Amino acid sequence: MRRITWFNAVSLTLGFAFLYIPMLILIIFSFNSSKLVTVWAGFSTKWYGELIRNEAFLDAAWVTLKVAVLSSTAATVLGTMAAYVMVRGGRFFGRTLFSGMIYAPLVMPEVITGLSLLLLFISIGLDRGVLTIVLAHATFSMCYVSVVVSSRLVSFDRSVEEAALDLGCTPFEAFRLVTLPIILPAVISGWLLAFTLSLDDLVIASFTAGPSSTTLPIKIFSSVRLGVSPEINALSTIMIAIVTVGVIATSLLSKQAIARQQREEREAAQA
Amino acid sequence: MSDPAPATGTGPSEFAPWKDPDAQPLIQFRNVTKRFGDFTAIDDLTVDIYAREFFALLGPSGCGKTTLMRMLGGFETPTEGTILLDGQDIGPVPPNRRAVNMMFQSYALFPHLTVRENIAFGLKRDKLPKDRIDARVEEMLRLVQLQKFASRKPHQISGGQRQRVALARSLAKAPKLLLLDEPLGALDKKLRTETQFELMEIQEKTGTTFVIVTHDQEEAMTVASRIAVMDHGRMVQVDTPDRIYETPNTTYVADFIGDVNLIEGNAAAHHEDGKVEIHWREGEPPIVGTPMGEVPDGTRCTFAIRPEKVAISKDHPEGSSNIVHGKVLDIAYLGNMSTYHVELPTGVIIKAQLANNRRIARRNITWEDEVWLSWTETAGVVLTG
Known about the structure:
Chain A is mainly α. In chain A, 79% of the residues lie in helices and 0% in strands. Chain B has 385 residues and is of the alpha+beta class. Chain B is built from eight helices and 20 strands. In chain B, a hairpin with a 5-residue loop joins strand 17 and strand 18 (349-355). The chains are: A mainly alpha (271), B alpha+beta (385).
């Protein structure tokens, strides 16, 4: 066992403080009974109650959820297809160009993506609303899904697909019955990534949202400009809680699954 | 030309369709060439493989044996030439429409399916009724003795069991032809030997034609009815294991299969019975050997003799026509036999093998001993290729 030196302890503390003090302050002040955000006046949960009665926030939350589910699903389908073609398609004309173009949105400034989408929607006469945000989010999160899925496909034993073909599958059946089930964990994490990207996107949503379709990040941002209210703190705390629970749950589940697999492999080797 | 090797004794009724001019081959390669860019993997290859054969493709990595097999499976198409299966050109037929199944080197089991589902996979694609599928899967599980493991996933069974699942899965559809790509490569030596016999038994029981790719010559010798020794996209020799071993047609084959002494020299003085003398060193008597083909006087040739056909003794042997004298340089003790490396006065080293049918203390040849090596006129072959 290596000893914890004072240097390690200090850098650890500094790092975590840097990361988590802002969030900690936010959580603490969400339980403040005072309306003034920076003055502590005793513990209270009344802002959470206020939040539930605030229709505007609830509407925005509902829009955000809808957009996130729809856009991440679309992005997952498109991104998986793109990854499959890029990894399995062999060498075809313009392959390098295509694969480069798929990943370009990763480094493209969001403002430019948002602006170009806005121009597109205006020029084809598509009214801005939930649909346009879904399309925009699917566009930019698709490349993230494709990165996650293609890294799984690269490490995938090609002969498993060949075995499926050999046993009578058409190429599509081989994908549906063999490839997809095997890469499913990567597809799911791609979906989750797209989902969270959509949840917290402000820039692209601002360009493509209409008056009737405000997402939560837009709502929070615009109300903060009128001054931070304890309600916002409460809302943010809820979001932090959801994310924390989600992350801990998935990591526990995958840890368990790995441990089970290793145990079974050990047993099989001994048998 | 007289046949120097004895006929293969594989039982009362010898299985040798390749000797029957009327036999219809199951697979025919006709002038097949396969190129990948500038690289020629298969070079103008023509060969017939017959039904119920256990045909081994043997060669070092990169010799084209896997490409040949993948062309049979439908994963590669020939650049030139045709491949016929049962008289039909299978070039344009995709893998899922071929009555050919393949057992992959990595086994390629479906990790998300149980052993039973893996074996049933191909049958389900044929849309067979459920009870027929179940019956066939049970039959296959029995064949490879995996009934107890039917509901396990591939990661829950051992390597040897996975190998058997892969075999059962590829046999389930009763293919005309089964391709095995280094099927035993991942198993340890003891298990491999056992499985070789199991494979032969299963091949006999099911009557399927097997084509096996291997780089392990011992494995090929054990299982195959015929072996094709490959080098650089060509088949150097296609023959039964004993003929490949006893009468190799080139030094490449002689050197690739088993251990061999290769002695270069010039052919001279043909005897009346077809044997030929080889002058190989000043001061050494010529070697008398049996040529495999025409060897005109003065041809540069190689005399190849297996170490176990070289007798070693401390006294001058009587009766043999090829006798040389040397000093024991090294002894490799292999348990069941020992290989003696004997250095002749000219510096040439000849290996002689002796079965250890006596306990080690009783053997009388040791390092630095002066010994005599001898062999008969028919023990070795004279090769020009």
